[in-house]
Amino acid sequence: MDDKVRELMYRIKKKATEAVDAASAAAKQVTQKTGETLETAKLNMRIFDLNTEIGVDYREIGRIVYETHRGKEVEESALENLLKAIDEKNAEIEGLKARLAELKKTVACPVCKEDCAKTDAFCRKCGAKLEN
Half-sphere exposure (CA, 13 Å, Cβ side) for 14? Predict the structure, then answer.
């Protein structure tokens, strides 16, 4: 085989290998981004579910308070259990929001709770100093 043809074949092979490597890297990034999007959706759905459960707990607390107002005997531990459940659900929500912030690469403003980029020094909404 002629040296020029051999050199041409080598260049073609090298470019094809580079193209395959680039396509592989792009596919890997797409897969990673899809996984992050799926995890974000799951976290948001769990937060929604917990908020719904908290709403049900609030309604039950209201029912207990109203029954007490009407003079009915109410088991005090039921109210305490509901309050404890709400506290636990709110704590879980905070943990889920922290995980979301990690995925989004954001930080919550300590004053207004607005999502800000981790590179921001001040909140875009209220101007408070961010702790990064």
Answer: 6
pTM: 0.63
Q: How far is CA 124 from CA 78, 97, 101, 115, in A?
A: 43, 19, 16, 9
Strand runs (DSSP E) across the chain, as ranges?
106-108, 115-117
SS3 content of the chain, % helix, strand, coil (to 5): 75, 5, 20
User: Inter-axis angle of helices 76-104 and 3-69, to 10 degrees?
Assistant: 160
Q: How confident is residue 122, by pLDDT bands cut at 50, 70 and 90? A: very high
* DSSP notation for 81-100: HHHHHHHHHHHHHHHHHHHH
Long-range contacts of 126-131 (CB under 8 A, 24+ apart): 131/107
